[in-house]
Design a protein that fits this description.
Largest sheet: 10 strands, mixed
Radius of gyration: 20 Å
Number of domains: 1
Helix content: 25-40%
CATH topology: Rossmann fold
CATH class: Alpha Beta
Shape: globular
Strand order of the largest sheet: 6-2-3-8-7-9-10-11-12-13
Structural class: alpha/beta
Distance between the termini: 48 Å
Mean pLDDT: 88
Number of helices: 12
Length: 405
């Protein structure tokens, strides 16, 4: 009976949120770096489609300019098509890969902050983009998302599969398009970098490339960062390849998939990537302890501690324990899976009542994401030790520095 009451209360709250009209423009937290930030909407060929790609970059200060509004509802600090700042160029390049159903502009505070510290950040809309888009209205309404959360009982895994399970099953859980699109986005960025007619000409350093991403984008980051699919010697048990009860907590063994089993274990790796930072990553690798040992680049993982609304921590711990240094694993207190995706706040004025990451002290939690990501990439893509103190001890009350080299 208590569970029924909780479900009824959850349904009432979420449907109340879904019933609210269009959200007003939401202003996200501001970047901390020394540079002003510009943003451009570019387009790249990702497989058989042309997709929009957001590009953030250090820009010349533009006093009085109105910040760009992402999807017309999320306001950051970046100015659209601002003049590039050439003084520190070429800058390291960072790929951002969004979560399942997300979009390239889902984590505005995070990507803008990296650009303010002297990075060019590129973020495509992957082909699974649905809940938001760089260009155009979303394919899934907030009401549908809310109903998915009701059916999932407030559980992240159940909610995800309520919204996307049929689509994933229809594609046989084939995620091979993800690393392919990530690599194609990097290819496109480096093409713009070489094009004398492009406003991004000469702005990026092709020898200093990093990758970061959220959820399925975290999985994408790990794939292109060099975590292999170690299927050699894997014996599939009867029923192990049954896709009827798949969840984030019980993922199908990737070795069941032809695109994994029949490929080189490192086929997803992009050797141009020199450092990786997955955020709340889905971790679907066979023989994870052995696969982690094959990582060759610095790695930082950041995730929340909410047991229902965050990915499982156990595989993250296994990944960290077995990866060679330098490596970092950080858990944020009172934080759920969606806290990194500030675009979520623009879905409804009452979303803070539903998601604990936004409910209180969001600015401080966002600060942790900003501080740790900037310190990590500064050290491993720039050799800049100016923020090393952040990597040695928690300086934010919401940060639990779980492990370090």
């Amino acid at each position: 009976m208590a569970k029924v009451k909780r479900m009824a209360a959850l349904a009432a709250v979420i449907m109340m949120v879904a019933g609210v009209g269009e959200a007003k423009t939401v202003k996200t937290v501001t970047p901390d770096g020394p540079n002003a930030v510009g943003v451009m909407v570019m387009h790249a060929q990702l497989g058989d489609r042309t997709a929009p790609v957001l590009v953030w970059y250090p820009a010349q200060p533009a006093a009085g300019e109105t910040p760009y509004k992402y999807e017309d509802v999320m306001e950051g600090s970046a100015v659209l098509d601002a003049k590039t700042l050439r003084d520190g160029a070429p800058y390291p390049l960072i790929l951002f890969s969004h979560g399942l159903g997300g979009c390239g502009c889902q984590s505005v505070f995070y990507t803008e902050n990296l650009a303010s510290y002297g990075y060019v950040v590129v973020a495509p809309d992957h082909k699974d983009s649905a809940m938001c888009h760089i260009e155009g209205p979303p394919d899934i309404t907030f009401g549908q998302i809310a109903w998915g959360a009701v059916k999932g009982g407030g559980d992240l895994s159940k909610t995800v599969f309520s919204l996307f399970g049929d689509k994933l099953a229809g594609e046989n859980f084939d995620f091979s398009y993800r690393p392919a699109e990530a690599k194609a986005t990097i290819d496109a960025a480096l093409t713009w970098n070489q094009d004398a007619a492009s406003p991004l000409h000469g702005l990026m350093d092709p020898d200093r490339i990093g990758a970061t991403g959220h959820s399925l984008g975290g999985y994408t980051t790990l794939m292109i960062g060099g975590v292999p699919f170690e299927c050699k010697g894997v014996e599939l048990k009867p029923g192990e390849c049954d896709t009827t009860n798949i969840s984030l907590n019980h993922a199908i063994n990737p070795c069941c998939m032809d695109y994994v089993r029949n490929a080189d274990p490192f086929s997803s790796r992009d050797e141009r990537v020199k450092a990786m930072l997955p955020l709340g990553p889905a971790v679907f690798f066979p023989n994870l302890d052995e696969a982690a040992k094959a990582i060759k680049i610095p790695m930082m993982i950041i995730a929340g501690d909410n047991q229902k609304m965050e990915v499982p921590w156990a595989p993250i711990q296994t990944l960290y324990d077995n990866a060679p240094p330098p490596k970092y694993a950080i858990r944020l207190k009172d934080t759920d899976h969606m806290a990194i995706a500030d675009q979520t706040m623009a879905a409804s004025p009452l979303v803070k009542l539903v998601l604990p990451g936004f409910r209180s002290h969001f600015d401080e939690k966002a600060q942790a994401y900003k501080d740790y990501s900037a310190a990590f990439f500064n050290l491993y893509l720039k050799g800049d030790h100016g923020m090393d103190g952040v990597l040695k001890a928690p300086e934010n009350k919401y940060v639990e520095l779980w492990a370090k080299p």
